[in-house]
Amino acid sequence: MLRLDRRFVIANGFAFLGAAPALAQHAGHAGHGQYEKLTEPGRILRPELATIQSVFDSPAPKAAQQGRWMAKADLPLPRSEMAWGTAHEGKMHIVGGYGAQQVDRPYHHVYDAASDRWTVAAPIPRGANHIGVAFLDGKLYAIGGFLEQNRKPHSACYVWDPSVDAWQAIAFLPRPVGSAAVVAFGGKLHCIGGAIGDTFDTKKSIDWHLVYDPKTNQWDARAPMPTARDHTGTVVVGNLIHVVGGRVDSFHTNSNLHHAYDPSTDKWQMRNPLPTARSGHGAVLYRNKLFVMGGEGTNRVFGQNEAYDPAKDSWEQYAPMLTPRHGLGAALVGDEICVAGGGAVMGGGIQSAINEAFTLAGS
């Protein structure tokens, strides 16, 4: 297993201020590129297929303020299929995923937006991809994940304490699951949807909705999603949990469904669908709107950046990503949505070290 020095820090002093949909070809590390193949070591430049598969057009109306994207410090190494990122006290955390020709990495990278630097924190005890992550009461929780490439889920769960930089096992999930969405609400963790199956032939999306109580170290069931999905974008907005998009068994059958769950009534409601059906996207609450960026579909890697206004139950499009990606880590850090890593082409064959941030400040 690849081991990274915990004291390792990487910094990048460049900033790209453009917001046009043209793809950014960043400098990379020592001119060796920001991408890497899953099947062979060594940095490469952006694959031609990535440009062919990139799409930016959104059917949603344009927002008056489009915002802008900026290049930030690259990840220490190309990664993808972390599935999600989470943030706390001005830092973004991304855990697990593909990297260095393996799909069960225990990586735990931490991005400090104020200094534009990455550090390496304690690795998760069991490496996996598509781990559900969320902060609750100042601690980072990691739920389930796949042990093989987007399949063979496990049920182990862990909590990381930043004060000692150490992980501790907590109650296992009742059943193994990967690519589930995890959010904190009301002092508990909600684990929603995901996929099961040890082979590609048996893999399927699920509608499970489980809740973890750290006070009792127990899992309980809640009302399942109306439609089984995995690789969703899931965010707490006010008193509701919104689940947006995702795939139904495969990215060939992506969904644009948008449901909101009310924990006080244990009921789901339909909301205005996502304009661009996709899965493996990022979802972040920013300035009271639910922003959705990136994702993949059949021969497509999406650069669309669309935002939902819960007060109006409507969507608008904003400046698209500089570099379309899926299976990325996305989180709000300060007044910026940071989007790190991810796959540049459909599937898990190519990882990236790219880190870009979106902001409405100054636009």
Give a description of the structure.
The chain has a single domain (36-359), classed as Kelch-type beta propeller (Neuraminidase, 6 Propeller). The chain has one helix and 37 strands. It has one helix at 48-53, and strands at 9-11, 35-37, 43-44, 54-55, 68-71, 86-88, 91-95, 108-112, 117-120, 132-136, 139-143, 146-148, 151-153, 157-161, 166-170, 181-185, 188-192, 195-196, 204-205, 209-213, 218-221, 233-237, 240-244, 247-248, 250-254, 258-262, 267-270, 282-286, 289-293, 296-297, 300-302, 305-309, 314-318, 329-333, 336-340, 350-352, 355-359. Strands 1-9-8-7-6 form a five-stranded antiparallel beta sheet, with no helix packed on it. A four-stranded antiparallel beta sheet has the order 5-37-35-34, with no helix packed on it. The longest helix has 6 residues, at 48-53.
